[in-house]
Amino acid sequence: MRKLPQPTEQELREGPQVVSFQIANGNARQSCILQTSFPTKVQAQRYLMANWPAVEKMARDALAMGTVEDGQIKLVMV
């Protein structure tokens, strides 16, 4: 099992990491962000990939409800 990298100084200053992704919306792409509680980008990205079906469903549900802020769907990991 690979060890995850330690948080960098910048990541420690920034705090919890945000991961950006896009989903298809007809012929267009919808920008989404996922706020995580992880201290490193690598951990946040791995969480996104490991939980992609659930995250994508939440993003599509938010899109269907019209929950778009500043052109982005914003999700928060609990």
TrEMBL record:
What is the recorded name of this protein? Uncharacterized protein
What organism is this sequence from? Bradyrhizobium cosmicum
